[in-house]
Write a structure and sequence with these properties.
two-stranded antiparallel ribbon, 14 strands, alpha+beta, Gyrase A, domain 2, RNA Polymerase Alpha Subunit, Chain A, domain 2
Length: 244
């Protein structure tokens, strides 16, 4: 089923310059896996058109050159982290945010409200050092996962039995306040009944069955943590490309 859902991905790479340590074919494959945020339902299949145009393709450009921020400074032999790299160099790390969309035909008008872009801006594509440069143009096409994995709209889906959390014996006073602090998920809260502070279950669905509340001997016999046998929670993440 997933392999039949179309998405838009980078399919053609026109490599003009690549002096990085990554080989051309590896760089092209790597950049092809960058997810593109655009609704594929707005595009036609290229096979039916016969050529690339504004209705069946998108075009991006990537042109990044690494330079020293201080030309007179000697390059350190050991650089320990990304923060130090970016303090010394310009464009030492090439990210998906460096991809620039080039509108074709009337695309600038059609996509004015929501321009095509990489789904995430912080995907690392390559690392450069002074004198190294990457320049390429990219063509994005509509496809499905049956053709290549880069067109698979990957998402997470899972289910679980709904939690059933009950206080079987009253927990009052300081014990009630302690129980509220013990639960990391906020399942329990306290309320004032008359002159007494009493613990209660406010949201059992937040329970992850960590059993932290049962680690204390004074709570172990007064709280029941279980699952409903006939109630399920089914979670499906949105893809980021299609709206939920």
């Amino acid at each position: 089923m997933i392999s039949e859902i179309p998405t838009v991905a980078i399919d053609k790479v026109e490599m003009w310059q690549n002096t990085s340590i990554i080989a051309d074919e590896n760089l092209a494959h790597r950049i092809g896996l960058v997810p593109i945020k655009v609704d594929p339902r707005l595009f036609k299949d290229v096979e039916t058109e016969g050529e690339y145009n504004e209705f069946n393709s998108l075009r991006f450009k990537l042109h990044v050159e690494c330079t020293k921020k201080d030309p007179k400074m000697k390059t350190p032999l050991n650089i320990n982290d990304v923060e130090e790299e970016e303090r010394i160099f310009n464009h030492s790390n090439v990210y998906s945010s460096d991809l620039k969309w080039i509108p074709i035909g009337d695309q600038a008008k059609r996509f004015k409200a929501n321009p095509p872009r990489p789904l995430h801006d912080d995907i690392l594509i390559a690392k450069l050092r002074p004198g190294q440069e990457i320049e390429m143009e990219l063509i994005c096409l509509k496809g499905t996962g049956k053709i290549h994995a880069k067109w698979s709209p990957v998402c997470t889906a899972f289910y679980r039995l709904a939690p059933d959390v009950r206080i079987t014996s009253k927990i009052e006073g300081d014990d009630a306040k302690e129980l509220k602090k013990v639960c990391p998920m906020g399942v329990f809260d306290i309320e004032d009944i008359g002159k007494k502070t009493v613990a209660k279950v406010v949201d059992a669905n937040k329970c992850t069955t960590c059993r932290e509340c049962l680690r204390y001997e004074k709570f172990e016999s007064r709280i029941d943590v279980g699952k409903w046998k006939d109630v399920f929670e089914f979670h499906v993440e949105s893809l980021g490309i299609y709206s939920p």
